[in-house]
Amino acid sequence: MKHARRSYQLLTHLGPCWVAFRLRYALRKKSGALIRRAPPGTWAEDGAAKAVGREPDLFRAKVSVGAGCVAEAEAVLTGRFRLYSHHQKDTGFPPPWHRNPLTGLTAPADEHWSRIGDFGSGDIKGVWELSRFPWAWPLARAYVRTGDERFAEGFWALFENWLACNPPNRGANWMCGQEATFRLMAATFSSHVLAKAKATTPARVAKFQEFTWVTARRIAVNLDYALSQSNNHGVSECLGLITAAVILPDEAESGAWNAAGLRALKSQLDKLVYPDGAFAQHSATYHRVLLHDLLWGVALLRTVGREVPVWWTEAARLALGFIDALITPTTGRVPLYGANDGANILPLADADYLDFRPVVQAGFAVVHGVRRFAPGPWDEAADWLAPGWETADRPGGPAAPRAAGVGERAEWVHFYEGGVAIWRTGETRLFFRCPRSEEHTSE
Q1: pLDDT per position as a tens digit, 192-235
Q2: Start-end of H helices in 147-176
Q3: d(C-alpha 222, C-alpha 366), whole Å
Q4: Are 145 and 18 in contact, with CB atoms under 8 Å apart?
């Protein structure tokens, strides 16, 4: 009776198509089909011969980097890492990549990723956290700030150790394509920022290319699972494929990765970004993940001279307007509705993870070519993602278009499709959740 009731609830709330897909996916896992599609291997045999061609020059702009990253980079070199954008933890250098630093439990390192459960070592996100490469961002930024080769060597030492401990498709860190995408984004940024460092040898660049190829293949074989979740997982994994296609333009599979990523991304954005800019995954921090994904992709495509589809920039514009209507300009804070696991996948500013000014400033720079806020530490993300975005001398720059509902007077801001209402007056924000209505699209 209990199983029948649960089955009825799944059919009612998620629909027969979703249930049918999950049944097929369970069969795919149990039958070993995923192992055949993504077989375990070693780095030498899986990717070395596939990493071919010259990479584009990415993230080579001269950026004024904040000083705060230096202290974090120094901490990383001593084995002290930041978890979930907030918690500091001594793990050693390099860290044990398969151990959950919060529980001390260890996930399997040799099993195929399809055979590993989500909670055998505590919440699996604890194992995944350092394998997102959050440490790569401060190391690369600190190198730009100081020119200290220790930071470049630290990045490559951690990168190579991760490869040694995580052969293709083996272990918990290959379970999630979104995690693989975040890892690829961090490694792409850092390896290109560190291109002129002595530590960046041709052999290490070849390893990065191999890593990119293996990552793209891992994402591609299971993309439909991410898309079935109807949240930021699908969006992120599409960006993973597009990123790999940009990095390895001469790879035979590059065209297929790019086409699959663009096709699925459009479908996801049409479904998940509402006409008022709200995101179907109702969470402020996950809304930022959506924006980071989209801004990252726009920056990459523009760097290599590729046209960004209008549907992509329009979705970014809408999502940006939504979060801008929520933000308190003097603090960067937004109402923290929904899940909050500290996700801040492009930490390119000296700012607390609860400060949304870096993503909003970068969004206005990328989408509108203007600034939203007066100059500050939050400019760094915009400088990385939209080099040359300011045509006027600082301070100032071009005036930003005002988001809907942004003003000095007391006012209501309604997002009917997103089921959100905000009362704004001065620095006060009152946030209300309400039933989503399809009857209203504007006020």
Answers
A1: 999 999 999 999 999 999 999 999 999 999 999 999 999 999 99
A2: 149-165
A3: 30
A4: no
The Cα–Cα gap between 222 and 160 comes to 25
Q: How many CB atoms lie within 10 A of CB 246?
A: 22
pTM of the model: 0.91
For residues 346 and 361, what is the distance between their CA atoms, to the nearest angstrom? 13
Q: Is the peptide bond before 395 cis (omega within 30 degrees of 0)?
A: yes
What are the CA-CA distances from residue 135 to residues 11, 64, 72, 83 (Å)?
42, 19, 8, 9
Own/partner contacts of 405-414, CB < 8 Å, gap of 24 or more, are 405/325, 406/324, 406/325, 413/325, 414/440, 414/443
Residue type, 392: A
Cα-based distances in Å from 22 to 47, 207, 227, 354: 31, 35, 12, 35
Tokens of residue 161, six digits:
């150790």
Asked if the model's pLDDT at residue 119 lies above 90, the reply is no
| Cβ pair 193, 231 in contact under 8 A | no
Name the average pLDDT for the chain: 88
94 vs 423: which has the higher pLDDT: 94
Tell me which amino acid residue 152 is.
Answer: A
Distance spanning both ends of the chain, measured CA to CA: 47
Q: Could you tell me which residues are beta bridge partners of residue 99?
A: 106
Q: How far is CA 439 from CA 343, 415, 416, 432, 435, in A?
A: 33, 12, 8, 18, 11
Query: How many angstroms separate the CA atoms of 153 and 143, rounded?
Result: 10
